[in-house]
Amino acid sequence: MTGLVAVIGLGPIQFDRPVWLLLLPAAGLAAWWMGRRSLAGLGPVTRWVALSARIVVIGLLAAAMAEPHWRTGSKHVSVTVIVDASESIPGHVQREVDRYVEEAAALGRDDPGDRLGVVTIARDSFVQSLPSDKTDRVERQHIGSPDGTHLAAGVRLAMAVLPPDAVNRLLIISDGNETIGSVLQTAEAARAAGIPVDVLPLTYQHDSEVMVDRLIAPATARMGENVAVRVVLQATRATRGRLAVFMNGSQVDLDPDGPDLSTPVELKAGPNVLTVPLRTRYAGPQKFEAVFEPLVGPGGEVIGDSILQNNRAEAISFVSGEGRVLVVREVDLEAAALVEALADARIAADVRTADQVPPTLAELAGYDAIVLVNEPVDLFSIRQQEDLRQYVHDAGGGLVMVGGPRSFGAGGWIGSPLEDALPIRLDPPQKRQMPRGALALVIHSVEIPEGTFLGKKICEAAANSLSRLDLIGINEYRLAEGVDWVYPLSEVGDGTAVKRAIQQLKFGDMPDFAPSLELTHRAMSAAPAGQKHVIVISDGDPSPPSRQLLQKFVNDKITISAVACATHSFVDQQTMQYMANYTGGRYYNIDPRDAGVQIPQIFIKEAQTVKRSLIWEGTPFVPAVASAGSEPMRGISSVPPVAGYVVAADREGLSQVTMRGMENDPILAQWQHGLGRVITYTSDAASRWNPQWIEWPAYRQFWEQHLRWAMRPTGSATIRVATETRGDETLVSVDALDPQGERLNFARFQGRVASPDGSAQDITLRQVGPGRYEGRVRTAEAGSHVMSLRYVAPMTGEDGTAGVVEGSVQAAISKPFADEFRMLQDNAALLRQVAELTGGRVLAGDPVRDRLWSRDGLTMPVATRPIWLTVALAAIGLFVIDVGIRRVRLDVKALAGRLRMLVSPGKAPSGRQMAGLRAARDTARQRIAARSDAPADGESALREKIQAKASAKFEAPPDYRPADAASRDRGRADVAARPADAGSSASAGKAPDPEEGMSRLLKAKKKARDEMSDE
Amino acid sequence: MAGASGCSPAHDPDETTLLAVDRIIGEVGTFPGQMSYPRAMDFDGRYLWIVDKTARVQRFDPVSGRSAGGWTMPEYLLGKPTGITVASGPDGEPAVYIPDTHYHRVIVHRIPPLPADGMTPRQAFLAGQPAEVTRFGSYGEGRGQFIYPTDVAVLTDSSGRRVRRVYVSEYGGNDRVSVWEPDGSGGFAPAFAFGVFGSSDSADRIEFNRPQSIEIAPGPDGTAELVVADACNHRIGRFTIDGELIAWIGSPGTAGEASGSFKYPYGVHVVGDGTALVAEFGNNRVQRIDLRTGLGLGSYGGAGRRPGNLINPWAVTSWGSAVFVLDSQNNRVVVARLPGVKSRRIVAGAGR
Predict the structure, then answer these.
(1) 8 Å CB contact between A188 and A181
(2) End of a domain among A270, A290, A320?
(3) Which is nearest to B66 in space by CA: B102, B25, B38?
(4) Is A999 in the B-facing interface, judged by CB distances under 8 Å?
(5) Residue A455 and residue A584 in one domain
(6) Mean pLDDT of chain A
(7) Measured between CA atoms, how close is A81 to chain B, in angstroms?
(8) On chain A, which terminus has fewer CB atoms closer than 10 Å, C or N?
(9) Which residues of B199-211 are buried (b: 16+ CB within 10 A; e: fewer)?
(10) Higher pLDDT, A88 or A408
């Protein structure tokens, strides 16, 4: 049935299945036709009332089946303004936008229920004000990072907060330069939801602007080669300024004759290309930076340039040379023997501490292998850990992780992105039954923008860094329940349950620390764990705990580290410091501006406190060696004893364990991970656990073989890589020569490009000419994209023998600044398209003419409520009335009289009663006279006949006079309406004969029967 | 939640019933008429005064629910006030006392004139910057110093105009009530203080743990008393105006949901018939108690977002039979009727 007729509305009522309404004419007609006969015995009025009632009953039933809904409409308009707060909009334009919204919102807002909402967009979107009748302007609180424009996310967010009980309109105020996502796709969603999106394009053009468009350096170079670095500058008009060039962070003297290092440049309108020759002095990645410095006027104003963020560009050239290794260690002694062994093996090594590690993947990629010696995870940012993983997997570098008491699982690497790259699992197996750690997190507040998000992230980071058998518990002050466990102290397991619980964190306003710490102490003191540690994060303003309570922690050897974030004053810091100092934990006071970076690191580091149990130390033993098939263990069949190591577990897959400890724990393992190779050695390279190794004759051989296996092969071919970026894509061209200088053909290149966001993509190179290969790669994001290519090619040796040449090469593609700063002009066309797509308006920016609150073209929203039951009940009720009409007739006048008597029984004068009775009698007489005088035409005859028939069924005959009308009057009100009832026995003139009455009744009955049988 | 009206004489005092809500004032936001985690409230006989976590002091018309002007505190980067009291100022004129919690001081503002007809809420707010009458206190634990002042109570003479004493509660390890007297030159001078941090119930050693709200009001016998909501000790204290303990109602050991017990009582308001209303942050309810016996007479609210529910209420006050509850985490004021509450508004020296 559905779909035959669309939904129809009738005033406030809407029918979802209106086809059932067809019942009304069909069944109504039938009812009328049948009623003509079946109701013929009733008086004309009664008959029509009964017939109408019947038809209405049918109508109501039809309506009930047609699924009626009651529609409630809204008359309020809600406008949600999506304001572009990204840096591409000049500051003065943003101020004008705020003024415009305030003025436009004030004009024509006649309905006090009209609402205004504000959403800002930049890289992320934020609701500044929910749609409200109290909002009257833009208030920018936290807009996040302004170096991007994600229009689509802004529209999505605005749509998520639209009030359902108002008609909604969105208004985008932007330059239309989106750098992320596609607003057109989201506009489709708005159109589908029937929400018009008005747009106010912000048009502007930077008249005076200089941009360092690109810095072009060869992707690869040879040591000592002079490379020509080309700086491409775009200027909107001729101007002057200075150019500075940096190489590996040191400024190059471009003006040897003058006192400055930078050189003056004259730019013409349009592109300008400046070439700077530079000599490469070191092997590895060489980072070049070019910076344009505009002239500054006497008042400090910048001349000839508007956007300063786009005045810098960088490029990296990889200079080939001997293989180099980066050794990272914090204490010299821990790596001294290893470094010496490398030197003996003529492997060039840079030895650094963690904070000296190159900060970018591009620079890391210059090393052929990285050795981490007893390094804990907290010395590396999440970004660096991710870079290390990419360095191996996508840039093809080698990683050798050497143990010590602060390494592997004991160093907090469980859960780190780098863990995936290791050939062992850092979480020890269940069978090891190591004493485990217990960590409780007491969460109060992280009072910074997006603090809730960060708070959840840090809890996850802490949970991630524990092993599955460790215990973790998280409690907080809950809004409704008070202090309670969000995750009761229990095993981490696979971490899914704890992560689910973390998402439930509410960061309630904790009045005092005592209940949280009491709850924590109760659980921790009973926990079966070796190390017990608590981390409290708060702004420090809850009431401090008592000394007695803290003493209980001390007695049970439970330490508390206090992380104070966004404290209100010295008092709060004191409270936090007191808890940490008293229990032997650490105290951190976080600057809210660095909270996003610092707190996760602290939580991971603090979580490590409970990880000391992952270390095995004992009587030295000789590990079992399984060197078969292992290239790095070639020629090594036994090793000296070890006195300790960090317990880990085997990893499924292609990892090969070549040395095992107690209970078969893996000590030395190797595998290929992506393009790179990884070796883990869970014992140390120093005298703590390996005292006899340093004296071992094969010590150098052991480490040399392992390092050389892990190091990226440099190869003997000469590979030149050139890159050319066009828009979001980069063309990679490779020229390959074999060791004899001949073009290298039929080479197979396996390549990966690591993007700045941590993702990676494969790159395929096709041969396009003799020794020349090309491929394309997407490089949309700003930052350095590091490309690593491994190649294998057939080669004929000098002696004519067939062989292969293989090796690898790195290159970097730099995109120096976000697209946000590349746009010198608005993109109003995109916004117009959005308006057109959604039926919105393109506003002119005039608060009066734009009529923000206009109802034009808006369809008011309607809420519907099903009312079929009400309609059906009405039909049933009316049906009963219908029966009543036919069976029972009411004399309104008599009823009224009765009512009068009831109300004032003693007051009704008998004379008036009598007058009423007389009037009734007269009326009855007139009706009788009228009937007898009526012309005997067919219609009236028929009416009489029907009446007679009906009377025979239900009523006394017309001339019937009751014996005691007054007494019957008391029992049946309708009887009083009969003409004969008009008078009492005293006033009726003559007394009726009961016999006569009965015989007449029987006669009438017989007559009616006869007539019916005739029909 | 059966018997939601709470009117039944057989009402179980241990059961928390929904508040019988008359109307709701406010919504979340930072525009005039909106509030963002409001934490203190007082009533001046005509208007509600509310201070929220954006450091805005707002005056609300309790009938229309509209904002009737206000101002932003002069400094707020270190933190926002958690108390507000409207009472007679040192010059006998009505004033707004703000314990400027995180600046360790009390600022007394003149009440700004009502907004002119036709002013938008924003114009009214911007026009509402009041003159400062005086300020007192500085950071420290010494005499005349504060750490985190939470609330102010004002004791006046019988006319209600002339200020005799000003009481200020504090926490942050300096949990006490300090008493100030007019210095004769339009300001206040410290007189004495009582209470230290702790949870003892001894009458000889008064201990507080975050006295969050205080009020001067006639006790059951008609004598002026100082009533203290000792929030983190989960009790209400009755003191003479000289700081001597009359009685504790509730205790740290009995903290909970039972009738006559409390969980973080953040706000207290004496109704005037020997009973008081207590806003319990931790129990998400308002409890009416008999000040003489300490017995609970009924609890209203319960955790939730629905009208009639509360989440972390910080304050309560009343006028006649209307009870105003500051439903802080719901960013609103709930105006409700509570059985039996028909307050004689006790305004100690509000000058109203």
Answers:
(1) no
(2) A320
(3) B25
(4) no
(5) yes
(6) 82
(7) 16
(8) C
(9) bebeeeebbbbbb
(10) A408
pTM of this structure: 0.71
DSSP B303: B
CA–CA gap between residue A419 and residue A408 (Å, rounded)? 9
Distance separating alpha carbons of residues A185 and A837, to the nearest angstrom? 10
HSE-up of residue B107 (Cα within 13 Å, Cβ side): 21
ipTM attached to this prediction: 0.86
Give yes or no: residues A453 and A572 share one domain: yes
Residues of B in contact with A132 (CB under 8 A): 27, 29, 31, 34
CATH number of A170's domain: 3.40.50.410
**Residue-wise pLDDT tens digits, A428-466:** 876 666 678 899 999 998 877 778 888 888 888 888 888
Q: Which of B22, B37, B95, B111 is nearest to B318 (CA)?
A: B22
Residue that is last in its domain, among A298, A320, A342: A320
Average pLDDT, integer, range A194-218 = 87
B140 in contact with chain A, both atoms CB, cutoff 8 A: no
Domain count, chain A: 6
Q: A1002: pLDDT confidence band, cut at 50, 70 and 90?
A: low
Report the residue of A128, A568, A572 to disrupt the B interface, i.e. the one with the largest count of B CBs within 10 Å: A568
Residue A546 domain flag: yes
Per-residue model confidence as pLDDT tens digits over A953-977: 344 444 444 444 444 444 343 433 3
Q: CB of A129 within 8 Å of any CB in chain B?
A: yes
Residue A102 β-bridge partners: none
Tell me: do A531 and A563 sit in the same domain.
yes
A502 and A581 share a domain? yes
User: CA–CA distance from A808 to each of A302, A765, B96 (Å)?
Assistant: 46, 14, 76
Classified as helix, coil or strand, A954 is helix
Mutate to test the interface with B, among A134, A506, A517 (most CBs of B within 10 A): A134
- Residue listed under structure tokens 């290893």: A338
Domain-embedded: residue A527: yes
Q: Is residue A683 part of a domain?
A: no
pLDDT-derived band of residue A943, with 50, 70 and 90 as boundaries? very low
Q: Are residues A732 and A870 in the same domain?
A: no
Q: Which residues of B touch A546 (CB under 8 A)?
A: 198-199
Contact A134 B147 (CB under 8 A): no
Q: How far apart are CA A38 and CA A886, in angstroms?
A: 10
Instruction: Provide the 3-class DSSP secondary structure of residue A224.
Output: coil
- Answer whether residue A370 is part of any domain: no
Q: Is residue A36 scored above 80 in pLDDT?
A: no
Tens of pLDDT, residues A207-224: 788 988 888 888 777 777
Tokens matching residue A333 = 């002694």
Amino acid at A632: P
Same domain, A115 and A235: no
Closest CA to A461 of A381, A524, A375: A381
- On whether any CB of chain A is under 8 Å from the CB of B33, the answer is yes
Burial code (b: 16+ CB inside 10 Å, e: under 16) for A899-917 equals: eeeeeeeeeeeeeeeeeeb
Task: List CB contacts (< 8 A) between A574 and chain B.
Answer: 173
CATH of the domain at A796: 2.60.40.1930
Sorted by where each starts, the structural domains of chain B and their CATH numbers stand as: 16-337 (2.120.10.30)
Tens of pLDDT along A729-754? 888 999 888 877 788 888 888 888 88
**Cβ atoms B287, B296 nearer than 8 A:** yes
A113 shares a domain with A184:
yes
Q: What is the pLDDT of residues A534-569, one digit of tens each?
A: 999 999 989 999 999 999 999 999 999 999 988 888
Q: Do residues A797 and A831 both lie within one domain? A: no
Assess contact for B219 and B202: CB atoms under 8 A: no
List the A197-201 sheet strands across, edge first: A125-132, A115-121, A77-84, A167-174, A197-201
The answer to whether residue A99 neighbours chain B at the CB level (below 8 Å) is: no
